[in-house]
Amino acid sequence: MIIHLKSGIGREKAGQMACELKAVHLMNGSDNVLVTSSNVKLVDAKYDDVIGEKFIFPDDLQLGSRQYRKKTREILIGNILIGGDSGHTLVVTGPCSVESEEQIETMAKLCVDLGIGMLRGGAFKPRTSPYTFQGLGMDGLKLLAKMREKYGLKIISEVRDATHIEEVIEYADVIQIGAKSMYDHGILRRCGTAGKPIMIKRGFGTLLQEFVQAAEFILSGGNENVILCERGIRTFENKTRFTLDLCGVSYLKEKTNLPIILDPSHAIGYAYGVPDLTRACIAMGVDGVIIETHPDPKAALSDASQQLNPDEFRKLYQTLGPVTSAIGRKIV
Ligand code: PEP
Ligand code: MN
């Protein structure tokens, strides 16, 4: 249950009530908000005179629920707005991993050239094997920051574990929580107090319920700026890397108030399918797509098979405008 206390109720009194109800205590400006487990459907009548409004939920999708907030949350990333009434579809691109200054600068320039405002690049990579490239770490983050300085781009980069979480929070404009880290409660809780937008990717074996509850950890920590990212789940099919769960995306659009970004690159795992899939994603009316691009995909140190080269990406990008305008949205 989410309980809005009447305005003017002191913070201390609200804190005491939160203790009694075993609730999370949040502030909405100067108003107190308490969030209990969704199992709580009733509160004692003794609280009646301090309660303004109550919201009762069938499960622990609460702060992120559309039943709680009708409108998709607005998220401002510098001067880039998504969600709310914006009708914006954000296109983010860049390499899987930052590999060198020359490599990341090529992709930064491609963004500038096309009018794209946000560059992706992994610095701390959660690889499946310990013997492959693990990312440039801090050097990678610094190169991303250099691209922000030089080209005015916003940066998204992944936090892999607790050893560098402060650094990613400091350097990135949006903090990415990867599919393999989305159960890390240290990361989730720290992102709850980060004061920057968080994009959380769905684990490939994660139920939608578990996914939205992971997002609730961040929201209930006080961070309102959470973006969901569907990037493919594991099914019986192995001709493609994963299966992009677009039915799940419909569910998330209907039931949550969180902006949604889709990642066709990791879903299919092969560059040949990325353009068609990107258009399909955009036609879903989501808030954005994130696509991996590399100056020379064959030579990429991670995810070589799925990255588009600059020409392929340019060609794809030019086809996106008509798809967004057909559904009354606009590329940003
Ligand atoms: C990535 O974005 O490069 C990545 C590792 O993605 P995921 O967490 O979805 O596997
Ligand atoms: Mn990747």
Name some characteristics of this structure.
alpha/beta, eight-stranded parallel β-barrel, single chain, 332 residues, 10 helices, binds manganese (II) ion, binds phosphoenolpyruvate, globular
The class by helix and strand makeup works out as alpha/beta
Structural shape: globular
Q: Quick one: biggest sheet?
A: 8 strands, parallel, barrel
Small-molecule binders:
phosphoenolpyruvate, manganese (II) ion
Q: What Rg, in angstroms, do the CA atoms define?
A: 20 Å
Task: Characterize the structure shown.
Helix 2 packs parallel to helix 3, helix 5 crosses helix 6 and helix 9 runs parallel beside helix 10 (310-326). The protein is globular and about 65 Å long. The model has no long low-confidence stretch (mean pLDDT 97). The protein contains ten helices and 15 strands. Helices cover 32% and strands 19% of the residues. The protein has an eight-stranded parallel β-barrel with strand order 7-8-9-10-11-12-13-14, surrounded by seven helices. A four-stranded antiparallel β-sheet has the order 2-3-1-4, covered by helices on one side. It is of the alpha/beta class. The two termini are 36 Å apart. 46% of the residues are buried. The site of phosphoenolpyruvate (PEP) has 9 residues, from loops. The site of manganese (II) ion (MN) has 5 residues, from loops.
